[in-house]
Amino acid sequence: MRTLPVGDDALLVEVASGEEAEALHAELLRRRAKGLLAAREIVPAARTVLLDGLADRDRVAAELSASDVPATASRARRVVEIPVRYDGPDLAEVAAHWGVAEHEVARIHAAADFRVAFCGFAPGFGYLTGLPPRYDVPRRATPRTAVPAGSVALAGPYTGIYPRSSPGGWQLIGTTDVVLWDHTREPAALLTPGTRVRFVPVSGP
Amino acid sequence: MTDRALRVVRAGALTTVQDRGRPGHAHLGVPRSGALDAPAAALVNRLVGNPPEAAVLETTLTGCALRPRCTVTVAVGGAPCPVTVDGRPVAWGAPVHVPAGALLDVGAVTAGVRSYVAVSGGIAVEPVLGSRSTDLLSGLGPPPLTDGMVLPLGRRTGPHARVDVAPQPSPPAELVLRVTLGPRDDWFTPRAVRVFTSHAFRVSPASNRIGLRTEGPALERARPGELPSEGMTLGAVQVPPDGRPVVFLPDHPTTGGYPVIAVVRTADLPALAQAVPGTPVRFVAVRRR
Asked: Carboxyltransferase domain spans which residues (chain B) (predicted)?
């Protein structure tokens, strides 16, 4: 674990893997809930957790360096099931990258256990990991100017679902009717960091 | 409809509702948002007797015109501009009485970029995640003002301030921004870090509430590629592949994959809200506190 000071009052904590970042994030949330850590924002990402708005950054950095953070988080979190029609316009391209038949994409994708590694890009947009590395795909060379809300998409090691229509460069493999973001709901985001996710294939519109 | 409301007669180039933003939701991908020139927004609220969390209007270059349906006290601050009520000039930077049905015109700026308009009672649109701010990156909060829109006002809570004109900083002729290097300054060549902290950049016209873009020398990377996405902070100086630094402002994305060479001191950020395109920018490295 490495701690990097950021600006006036933030600390970027860097770890070796996404698994460690998840475990560190869970541990930092636990410390904040117990009143042991005062931070305005705790933002997990691919290999880091950002702590922003720290009153005493040096003390937090020293405490983190001196303490043991478990290498993996506990798996006892809720599982969100997302019904998906695997009807995306980039299915053939993804199948070609994976070296499988087009109808195999749904089976492979729906067989994986996903978790929300972190959020970003838009409110409620989760970066989901869970596919084995051999299924990484590149972004599209030319991003689309409008990706419909509910599009299930792949880029690099991640699966994501567009909470609302927006420009995007990810490969679209399917569609869901699930509401990803509703600011009148608590929490507003369906997919919060650490949440387990399964995709369930459905047919028809 | 209640008469505690005002009608937008002229929305201006870009006028948004802003308060102190919605920090605390970055882990869900929600930008903090909020007034870019926060001290100016706080001052105009104080002048009309509003609490500091009341929502104000943030204009861009061309001002706006409003017709309140009830008698209100308003104050205009931030970027200086002519202010009139039914065509009569009134004070900028001071509480002004606007009778019900009168036309308040906040004119084009004479310097700076963003004027702030506080109305007694505050702009009372429905809050989203605890804030009424318009977030232009993610679309949260009310949409930017349009002609004919009606905005609800809250209940007046306190008396207006007893001042003639409150002092406010002038818009900057040059931005001198104190930065602390890192967390990713090691992604740049030593020469690029020297260029960053010694050469003059200029404010790009492509700047907005998300980031202040710069024009000037391109900063050379010591390594190629992108970082795995990581959390971003207000004031972060991110360097995209074109090598031109971008300073993140309140509507900035919560995570990003371009390296952050340095972070601007929080106290130096309000001046960025008022820097017109072409303003010289210098980044001065200071020791961490």
From this structure: 27-289
Q: What is the rounded average pLDDT of the residues A174-183?
A: 96
pLDDT at B242 over 70: yes
Please report whether residue B163 resides in a domain.
no
ipTM of the complex: 0.93
Supply the DSSP string of A26-60, one letter for each residue.
Answer: HHHHHHHHTTS---SEEEE-SSEEEEES-S-HHHH
A162 touches chain B (CB under 8 A): no
Domains of chain A: 2-66 (3.30.1360.40), 79-201 (2.40.100.10)
Whole-number average pLDDT of chain B: 95
Q: Which residues of B touch A (CB under 8 A)?
A: 23-30, 128-129, 138-140, 180, 182-183, 228-236, 253-256, 260, 263-266, 288-289
Q: Which residues have CB under 8 Å from A184's CB, separation 6+?
A: none
Question: Closest Cα partner for B256 from B216, B219, B222, B210?
Answer: B210
Pair B139, B224 in one domain = no
Q: From A127, which residue of chain B is nearest by alpha-carbon distance? A: B229
A43:B129 CB<8 A:
no
Residue B146 pLDDT level (bands cut at 50, 70, 90): very high
B10 and B100 in a single domain? The answer is yes
The reply to whether B14 and B135 lie within a common domain is: yes
Partners of B234 on chain A (C-beta within 8 Å) are 7
Residue B92: domain span: 5-152
Note whether residue B27 is domain-resident: yes
Distances (CA, A) of A163 to A84, A176, A200: 14, 10, 18
pLDDT of residue B1 exceeding 50, the answer is no
Residues of chain A found within 8 Å of residue B266, distances taken between Cβ atoms = 7-9
**Residue B169: inside a domain, yes or no?**
no
pLDDT in tens, A83-139: 999 999 999 999 999 999 999 999 999 999 999 999 998 999 999 999 999 999 999
Which residues of chain A neighbour B226 with C-beta distances below 8 Å? none
Q: Does B117 lie in the same domain as B61?
A: yes
Joined tokens for residue A159: 């699966």
Domain boundary among B121, B152, B183: B152
Q: How many domains does chain B have?
A: 2
pTM of the model: 0.94
Residue B157 belongs to a domain? no
User: Are B132 and B206 contained in the same domain?
Assistant: no
Q: Give the residue among B48, B60, B55 at the shortest CA–CA distance from B13.
A: B60
